[in-house]
Amino acid sequence: METNLAQIIAECQAGQLEQFAVLYDAYVRKIYDFIFYRTMHKETAEDLTSLTFTKALERINTYQANKGSFSAWLYQIARNTLIDNYKNHKPTAAVEELENFASGENLEQQTEARLNLEKVKNFLQTLDEEKREIVTMRVWDGLSYKEIGDILGKSESSCKMSFLRIMEKLNKEAAFALIYLLMLKIG
Amino acid sequence: MENIEVKIEELTKELLAYDKNFMAHEAELKKIIRQLLMSKPDTKFDPQFAENLRRQLLLKAEDLKTASSPRLWKSWRTLLVPAMAVAVLIFGGIYINNKNNKTVIETPLLSDKIEIDSIGKNAFGKIALNDIGSGGTGRGGGGGGSEALSATPIAAPKNADSSNTQTQTAAEPDSGTASNLANTNSLAMPTTVASPVASGMGGGGGDAKMIAPYPNYRYVYKGEPLKLTDTEVSVYKRQKGMTSSAAAQFIKQLRFGLIDMTKFNNVDVDLISLMEKKEYGYNLTINFREGIIAINENWELWPTPDKQCQTPECYDSLRLKPSDVPADEEILSIASKFLSNYNISTANYGQPQIMKFWQRDLEMATDKNQVYIPDVVSVIYPLIIEGQQVYDESGSPAGLAVNVNIRVKKASGVQELAVQKYQSSSYPAETDANRIIKLAENGGFRTIYYAQEGVKTEDIELGTPTKSLVKIWQYKNGTSDELYIPALVFPVTSAPKDSRYGYFYKTNVIVPLAKEILDDANNGGGPVPLMK
User: Taking the model in full, what pTM does it have?
Assistant: First the structure.
């Protein structure tokens, strides 16, 4: 896929910008999900996805393959767009609302998680933002450690090690399911 | 759920591989990962949003291209003045654009930008009115099949006005819509370039062993209750008449040896036809009157292997096998590159879809090598008007069609490349959900079926509909108009799979929301008999 994308990117950079649609098709769902997991708000996710791809289209000429994958480049734009958005609109959401975002099927877990809310909040304070990002990127976004490293500017092994340590920590804590939703919103 | 299990295994393994100390806690680890995965939110991804954004980005891409193109405004005087003069005369409003050191003359004529002018209510008059009946925009192709297949029991129309309707519905279960366009063209449609796309929308193939009688089909609505609150809908009418009187004025000055053009009066340019004189070149027809362009292969210069055949055995030996068919990605890539190469914008269209109706026959056939695989498949880029996808009356996506010759892996033509200039006008909408569902359960508006006695009845389940547009042709006073009517598209969620009758091809049932159209389908078009 990367080989084909490299050709498409080259065509875009040569002025055939309509080829950007191919890149868009390949990534729109991933980027939208990436943003949604961090905003938990459909309209905001759509707005920021639009912004991300508009920026990517406008800046496609600045992408350099020797500095990282296109995927990482695009996720970086999405991440920066999110950060800009956080600066202007600190997200807020009630716990009750957050429950609705879970996939369903695990109502029992959700109930249990709600009961553990205080514990969750305490837990959140123990994790830094980067660690939360690593777990989210690996588990929910399905990114490889290499991609995560490229996006966060860290090494692959460092990302893997962080993930490992977080798992160790989670192993000692309870309220796993809702923890994550809250980590994203409150953190 | 299966994906979650795979993911759990994958994540667990990599952690264990990284730190063996985790082995003692493998079960707990899996539990944690499972819970994290299970709490992954439903992101409520909206494909319509993605489609809209895609279009916006393509428009943006066009703007960026235009903005970055080096124009020769300053040095235009250095260009060939006579050529300029001719171009100005013919097309008006040009500017010069220098790409790759080639002079390009751009014209706003036959623009690729979508324009919609909203006008008053009921502005198009009676939209249901048809002088000669209402044929669909059939996708051509298909047809054929065994005699048994062609014996599908479809009733004759009740009156002359519905002659084309009968053809349309004849395609319903299996036989394709091959003859639709031919019929409508022969009657009144002035368009000469809007030929059907190459591949059939169904039908064709068949096997004498797939014997009649066909079962009766009964549509059953299984979707959610409908709530129709809009009392009006916007009907769109594509604007035509892009004739170039300036071009005619230029030609009118010519005096050929055979004829003196100066003697003609009130002349407009209607059609321009061009041909590429090269191997695998194209024929291009620009229909100014219809505002539509068609590209077809220049047959004389397409050296496909079958051109050398003189005998049926030769043709048989060249028949495509399932393994000869390129992957979908490759077909889409061929279509996309062709459009890109000829600067044909897809900004007004949705995600391309490959029309491979024979694929269904292939899946059902016991001897797959007996299934006829055509050389050409169509890639349809569904037209989008104000965020609504367009379907034809048969329920298939309608829009820009790129034909791909899969034998030589080249695009062999483009159909329905049309100027997207519309007027919109509001018309009363049907708000009676029961009536809409009843029509859907009849197989859609204008569907005429007569149940056979003594054969079994097969249920076809319909799901909750989505709102789209249906393209219909309106014939008045010897001319045709393209109307785009808001409609509900009911997806076929479950269809009969009895291989004796072939594949049930219909994927959607269309019911327009404009009340007048429905009233006409019931009255002007004669009664709509229920399927058994």
Answer: 0.54
Query: Is A135 within 8 Å of B36 (Cβ atoms)?
Result: yes
Query: Residue A75 CB: number of other CB atoms within 10 A?
Result: 24
* Rounded percentage of chain B residues whose pLDDT exceeds 90: 30
Residue A29 within a domain: yes
**A169 plus A112 within the same structural domain:** yes
A93 assigned to some structural domain: no
Q: Say if residue A111 is in the same domain as residue A64.
A: no
Given A41, A60, A88, the domain boundary residue is: A88
Contact B57 A53 (CB under 8 A): yes
pLDDT per residue as tens digits for the range B157-200: 333 333 333 323 333 333 333 333 323 222 223 333 233 333 33
- State the pLDDT confidence band at A2, using cuts at 50, 70 and 90: low
| Residue B229 CB burial class (10 angstroms; 0-12, 13-18, ≥19) | exposed
Say which residue, B256 or A179, is predicted with more confidence. Answer: B256
Can you give the residue range of the structural domain that contains A172?
106-186
ipTM summary value: 0.78
Collect all residues with Cβ–Cβ distance below 8 Å to B8 and sequence separation of at least 6: B30, B33, B34, B37
Q: What is the CATH number of the domain that holds A158?
A: 1.10.10.10
Domain annotation covers residue A110: yes
Chain B residues with at least one Cβ partner in A under 8 Å: 7, 11, 14-15, 18-19, 22, 25, 28-29, 31-33, 35-46, 49-50, 53-54, 56-58, 60-62, 64-65, 68, 336, 339-340, 345-346, 351
| A171: chain B residues, CB-CB within 8 Å | 25, 28-29, 32
